[in-house]
Design goal:
Helix content: 40-55%
Shape: globular
Strand content: under 5%
Radius of gyration: 12 Å
Order of helices and strands: HHH
Structural class: mainly alpha
Number of strands: 0
Length: 81
């Protein structure tokens, strides 16, 4: 299991699994799924991917303003625990 989940893994998911065009990848991680045009189904897919790949569960209902940076921080915090 990797020691940390990084933005490259998250961006790969967004492009290959969530259908975000590579040209639409954000320049910063301080954006929400909604900000980049992805819906709750894409978030559910991400939840499943994270559990399968690194064994960490994300919140079922992301808090308002839950950014990509928040997701990475939550995953890496749990992986380090």
């Amino acid at each position: 299991m990797p020691q940390q989940w990084d933005s490259a893994a998250l961006f790969e998911f967004l492009v290959t699994r969530a259908g975000l065009p590579e040209d639409d990848l954000p320049a910063t991680l301080d954006v929400t799924f909604e900000d980049i045009g992805l819906d709750s189904l894409a978030y559910l897919q991400l939840q499943s991917e994270v559990v399968e790949s690194v064994g960490v569960e994300l919140p079922a209902d992301p808090p308002p303003g839950y950014t990509l940076a928040d997701i990475l921080a939550a995953v890496n915090r749990e992986m380090a625990a």
